[in-house]
Amino acid sequence: MNRQFNKTSRRVNLETVLLLCLSLFPFLGMAQRPAQPPISTEIYSPEKLGYKLVWEDNFDGNALDTTKWKVRGIGPRAIAYVSEEAVKVEDGYLKLFALKQGDSLLGSAVGTQDRFMPKYGYFECHAQLQKSQGVWAAFWLQSKKITQGEDPAIYGAEIDVMEFFKKLGDDIISHNVHWAYGPNQQTTRGMQSYLEGVSEGFHTFSMEWMPNKYIFYIDGYKFYEVTDGISNIKEYMILSMEYPGNKKDIKKAVFPAVFIVDYIKVYQK
To answer: What mean pLDDT comes out for the span 233-246?
Structure first.
C-alpha cells in the first residue's frame, strides 16, 4: 500500500448526498438515528480551528510503541478473545485484526490508559476500515471512572468517535456517547453519518471535545454537534476490532478482517 495520500478532500455535493440518504431511509430507519450528510460544506482542520499538535503516533517501525500504547483487555471479550497476536505494526501502519483460528476467534485492542490521558482537544485518526461484516473497527475514548457514578462531568463518558458497522451500509459511519455505566446508563443514541466512498481507501475520523460539546467530523466535514454526556475529566484513547455478543451475528464475517491505522494525532489549544 502507498503510504502517501491526497490530503485535499473532495467537496461533497450535499444535495446529491441528501437524495441518496433519502433513498436509503427504509433501511436506515432500523438504526437509532437516520443517516445524514454533513451539516456544513466547509472542510475543517484542527489548525483552522486554532489547535496545535501535542501528541501523535505514525506507527513507524515494527512494534507497538509501548510508551504510548498497550494491548488492552487481553482475555475474553464478547464472543472472542483479545490477543496480542492480532495486533501488528508493519509497513508504517498499525494493523488490528479479527482472526479465526480453528474454533477460536481473536480480537484486538490497544489503548493509551496511564500513558496519555488528555482532557479536551481535537482527536484525529487516519485509517482504512475493515471489509467484513459482523466485526467492526472502532476509535473511541474512555474514562477510568465511568462505572463510579452517573454525572459525566465528574465520572466521564465513553466517546465513540467512529464505529463502522458494515451491515448498515458501505458509506455509513456511526458515532455515540455513553455515560453512567450501570442500571441507569445514558446515551446520545447512535448517530449515523453518510459519506460516499468512506469504506474504500483511507479517511480521517475526528472528534472535537470541548467543555460544553462534542463535534464529530469525517474527512474534515462536520456531521454532528452534541451537548449531552460531556466529560470534564481526563480520558484515554482506544483503537479496536470488535465482535458482537452472539455468533449468529458473524455468519457473514470474512476472516481475517483488518482495521489499518495510518496515524493518530491529538491537538489542543
So the answer is: 98
End-to-end CA distance of the chain: give it in Å, rounded.
Answer: 34
| Amino acid found at 48 | K
What letter would DSSP give residue 87?
Answer: E
pLDDT at residue number 15:
38
**Residue type at position 21:** C
Check whether 27 has a pLDDT greater than 60.
Answer: no
Strand extents, DSSP E, the chain: 52-57, 70-71, 75-77, 80-82, 87-90, 93-101, 104-111, 121-128, 136-142, 158-164, 172-179, 186-187, 191-194, 203-209, 214-218, 221-226, 236-242, 257-268
Q: How far apart are CA 150 and CA 128, in angstroms?
A: 35
- Reported as a single tens digit per residue, the pLDDT across 119-166 is 999 999 999 999 999 999 999 999 999 999 999 999 999 999 999 999
DSSP strands (E only) in 103-249: 104-111, 121-128, 136-142, 158-164, 172-179, 186-187, 191-194, 203-209, 214-218, 221-226, 236-242
Look up cell 436509503; give the residue: 24
Pick the CATH number of 36-65+109-252 from 3.30.1490.180, 2.60.120.200, 1.10.390.10, 1.10.10.10: 2.60.120.200
Indicate the pLDDT class of residue 32, thresholds 50, 70 and 90. Answer: low
What is the distance between the alpha carbons of residues 112 and 233, in angstroms, rounded to a whole number?
15
Cell numbers found for residue 177: 456517547
Residue 232 is predicted with a pLDDT of 98
The 10s digit of each residue's pLDDT in 76-135 is: 999 999 999 999 999 999 999 999 999 999 999 999 999 999 999 999 999 999 999 999
| Domain coordinates in residue numbering, the chain | 36-65+109-252
Specify the residue for cell string 451537548.
227
